[in-house]
Design a protein that fits this description.
The chain is α/β, with parallel strands linked by helices. It folds into four domains: 83 residues, Signal recognition particle alu RNA binding heterodimer, srp9/1 (2-Layer Sandwich), CATH 3.30.720.210; 179 residues, 3-Layer(aba) Sandwich (Rossmann fold), CATH 3.40.50; 71 residues, Helicase, Ruva Protein, domain 3; 190 residues, Methane Monooxygenase Hydroxylase, Chain G, domain 1 (Up-down Bundle), CATH 1.20.58.760. The structure holds adenosine-5'-diphosphate, magnesium ion and zinc ion. The site of magnesium ion has 4 residues, from helix 7.
Length: 626
Amino acid sequence: MTSSKNTEENPKETQNQTPFVKQNKFWIIILIIVTLFIWSYYFTGLNYTEISYTKFKSELQKDNVEEVTLKGLEVTGSLKSPSNIRITKDNQIQFRDFITHVPSFGDEKLLTLLNEKDVTVNTEPKPDNSFAYTLIAFLPLLLIAGLIFFQYKRSQGQGGGIFSIGKNQAKLYSRSEEATKFDDVAGAESAKTELQEIVSFLKNPEDIFQIGGEVPKGLMLVGPPGTGKTLLARAVAGEADVPFFSITGSDFMEMFVGVGAKRVRNLFADAKNEAPCIIFIDELDAIGRRRGAGLGGGHDEREQTLNQLLSELDGFESKENVIVMTATNRPDVLDPALSRPGRFDRQVTVDLPSKKDREHILQIYAQNKNLDEDVKLEEIARGTPGFSGADLRNLLNEATLLVARNNKQAISYQEIEQARDKILMGLERHGLALTEDEKRLIAYHEAGHAIVGNILPHADPIHKVSIIPRTMAMGATQQFPEQERYIYKREYMQERLAIMLGGRSAETLIFNTATSGAGNDLQEATKLARKMVLEWGMSEEFEHMAPAGGQGEVFLGEELAQKKEYSEKTNQLVDEAVESILKQAYSRAYNILNEHRDALKALAEILVEEEEISGEKVDEIVGQKS
Ligand code: ADP
Ligand code: MG
Ligand code: ZN
């Protein structure tokens, strides 16, 4: 098992929003302060006491008003000597400057009275400060509008928020100096050859049209995770020196039905404006799953999005110089309509790297790392079968971190080994307190795998056996092939099954029991045995026959709803065939262990002591004891 962590590089773009936001906050605060200031100035700043018109009239009658200013219906003024108004029962305030309002129907006698009492009267034009008033009245609204605007700006930058729904979310990588080139991708030679054609077309489309050639509009990169599909797509854009719209399938998916379809439309419209360019839809399986499959009916949003994508693919001409690339690691679940001619009809397979390619990939990522002189990349490449490019990169990164933790200067095999174990088996679980009995059970279980693996002739050599508990397993027996295989013989498969069941055999042989620790072994063995029967015709009952019809794995839901291609009777026979293969494998393992019981015991006891031993040590023990 290999675990691949997706260590995808982040696009180099200006996602850095912090200073902008900070600035916004600053302005918002300023705005609030100014508003409050103006507000208080106009409403409280002048220190007029608002009094009733009656009160004003009575003060006037008492001859206590010194002067007034009339502005429209507003009357402000000051008293000769301070007067009181009652607020509550036993609380009153004194005032001199006052403000009051003439009733809206007017008071004809006011002026006469003012004249009589010999009050100085100032008048000011009526529309006093209407601008300021309007401003004040609208400031709160402005403030809210401002806030919404800033929020909008922000959401645009971060690709979230209510306003960005339906917008084209593709990141546009424009021509940058640090563009990814084919040289940054190690191995994958056949894929590169295929892609080179696309590059030439994007560079000189005329050449191809002149000879009447047609260029594929859509191209699909297919391969296991971490093998560099995304990297290759970026390299095509880098080599051709054209803009590159990159979007991930899941980006189309939203809460609201129809949004994904709109995004697809916008993406294609934007791309046409930038032509020649590349649209890259990563992880196509997120939207491209077979329609009408799965339990509980289809997923409306997904299907609408997919339909839109299909019609966009149909809707533009190859003359438009837009190439649509996509990548997936689940081509089996894709809707067949996607690979029809004129759509993603060209498939480029990106395989797991071979040993030579692994060495190349390691070379790329070891460049800026400090490796011990005796560390040979070829050696590491040999010890990492099944690792993807992403895994290898991860391996060197982990090793670098370990160098720091081990207080060393350079990466040695020790760090490589530790890093590989971490990737293959997960982190060590230091805090786990196993009882002596549990530890012994695990030791015998692993020793069982190891002894069977050591004895059987076609098996891959054992690299090491460990009973250090880790997140993914309580113990492990690592085997690495001497050379890469592309085809497997029946004998190899049968022996593999025996090794897988060696753990359970040892439990039964020594302790006459069965543990839950064998669960994973049994699942894997059953899966392999089913494949042997259903796909490879390796059982006695179904020789030269593949009842599954080469359907491969299907995703959940469909698998359940799938109509079997064979009858119930055949189904029963398949189960029987699987069972018989597994039984044979088990008794083979059991017999070997029974025969090499001493070696098994010796190995298990050493394991209990040392927790981890090498393949050579296993050889030694088996050699001595038999
Ligand atoms: P995929 O899209 O196939 O899942 P990616 O392209 O995202 O894989 O690869 C993940 C990372 O692994 C890349 O960014 C790159 O660093 C590394 N990588 C994978 N394959 C290669 C390769 N052939 N050469 C160089 N680096 C690789
Ligand atoms: Mg990818
Ligand atoms: Zn096991």
